[in-house]
Amino acid sequence: MEDNKNTASNLPLQGARGQHVVILTGAGISAESGLKTFRDSDGLWDGYDIEEVATPQGWKRNPALVQEFYNMRRKSVIEAKPNAAHFALARLEEKYKVTIITQNIDDLHERAGSTDVVHLHGVITLSQSSKNPNLTYPIKGWELGMDEVCELGSPLRPHVVWFGEAVPMIETAMNICDQADIFILVGSSLAVYPAAGLVGYVRNEVTKYIIDPKIPPVYNISGLVKIEEKATIGVPKLVDELLNDPK
Ligand code: APR
Questions:
Q1: How far is the CA of 28 from the centre of ligand 1 (A)?
Q2: Is 114 left (phi over 0), alpha (psi -120 to 50) or beta?
Q3: Is 121 a catalytic site residue?
Q4: C-alpha 8 to ligand 1 mean position (Å)
Q5: Catalytic residue selected from 86, 109, 119, 121
Q6: Sequence-separated (6 or more) residues with CB below 8 Å from residue 212
Q7: Hey, which of 38, 123, 190, 232 would you mutate to test ligand 1's pocket, going by the most ligand atoms within 8 Å of its Cβ?
Q8: Nearest CA owner, ligand 1 atom 30
Q9: Which fold has domain 37-79+124-160?
Q10: Which residue, 25, 193, 170, is CA-closest to 105?
Q11: DSSP assignments along 21-34, one per residue
C-alpha cells in the first residue's frame, strides 16, 4: 500500500466535472465550530459514561439523565455555526455530485448548504417515538421534555443511534461509497463500526483523502493521501484544488 503524506498544496489531483465525491465526516469537522469531539482530550466521553447516556439500557435506567445529556448538546449545536470546512464542502456541489455521509448528529452540514447528507447516527434536532423508531418529530428549540409523547403515547427520545442499536442507513452508505469517484474522510478517529468500515467499500483505484491533525490508523487501503491539517485549513484547500481543476 502506497500512501503519501501531503499538505493540500501538492496533491496528486484528479477531478472531472460531474464526478461523484463522497465525504465521510466525524466529530472533528465540527470541533472548530466549538462542538466537542468524543475521544480527544476533554472530549465528551471524558465527562460522561457512554453506558449511562448513549445506550438503550441507560435510557431505561435513567431517561432524564439521557434527555439532559442530549438537551445540553442540542443547545450547543443550535448556538454553533458551520465553519469554513462545512462551507467548503457545500461549495463542491458547484461542479460535482456530492454526498456527505456523517457520523455527526449536528446539522452544520445542512446549515452550510450541503444538500445531500446521510446521517448514520441520527440527528439531534429530531425526536423519535420510544415505541416506534420510524416515528420522528422536529424538536422546537433545544429542550425535549420528559413529558413529551409520540402519537402512540410513548415518551419521546432523541433521534440518535445509541451503542448497541442498529445503524439503519449503513447499507445505503456502503452503496454510496462504492459509487465514489473521489473519497474524502474528515475528522474521524475511525474508532466506531460499522462507520469505520466504510473506507473499505471505496474502490481501490479511487483516491482517498484523509484530513485530520492526527491521521487515524488505516490499514490495507490503497490510494491514501494524508493531509495532516485541521478541517478549516485542509478542507478549503482541497476543495479549491478540486474546483479549480475539473477537466
Ligand atoms: N479538524 C479535523 N479533525 C479534527 C479536529 C479538527 N479541528 N480536531 C479533532 N479532530 C479529529 C481527531 O484527531 C479525531 O481523529 O477528529 C477525530 C475525532 O474522533 P472522535 O472523537 O472519535 O469522533 P468520531 O470519529 O466522529 O466518533 C465516531 O463515536 O462516540 C461515537 O457516535 C459517536 O459518531 C461518534 C462516533
A1: 4
A2: beta
A3: yes
A4: 20
A5: 121
A6: 28, 185, 186, 187, 188, 227, 228
A7: 38
A8: 38
A9: SIR2/SIRT2 'Small Domain' (3.30.1600)
A10: 25
A11: EEEEE-THHHHTTT
- Among the residue ranges 1-10, 34-43, 126-135, 167-176, the one predicted with the least confidence is 1-10
How many residues comprise the chain? Answer: 247
Give the pLDDT confidence score for residue 2 in this predicted structure: 42
The boundaries of every CATH 3.40.50.1220 domain in the chain are 1-35+82-121+167-247
As annotated, the residues of the chain forming the CATH 3.30.1600.10 domain(s) are: 37-79+124-160
Taking only the tens place, the pLDDT of each residue in 199-246 is 999 999 999 999 999 999 998 899 999 999 999 999 999 999 999 965
Q: CATH code for 1-35+82-121+167-247?
A: 3.40.50.1220
**What are the distances in angstroms from CA 128 to CA 152, 154, 155, 195?**
11, 10, 9, 22
Q: Which three cell numbers stand for residue 3?
A: 500512501
**Which one, of 238, 230, 206, lies nearest residue 9 by Cα?**
238
Output the average pLDDT for the chain.
93
Asked whether residue 8 carries a pLDDT value surpassing 70, the answer given is no
Residues near ligand 1 with C-beta < 6 Å? 26-28, 31-32, 37-40, 43, 103, 121, 187-189, 191-192, 212-214, 216, 230-231
Question: pLDDT digits over 147-195, tens only?
Answer: 999 999 999 999 999 999 999 999 999 999 999 999 999 999 999 999 9
Provide, rounded to the nearest whole percent, the portion of the chain with pLDDT above 90: 89
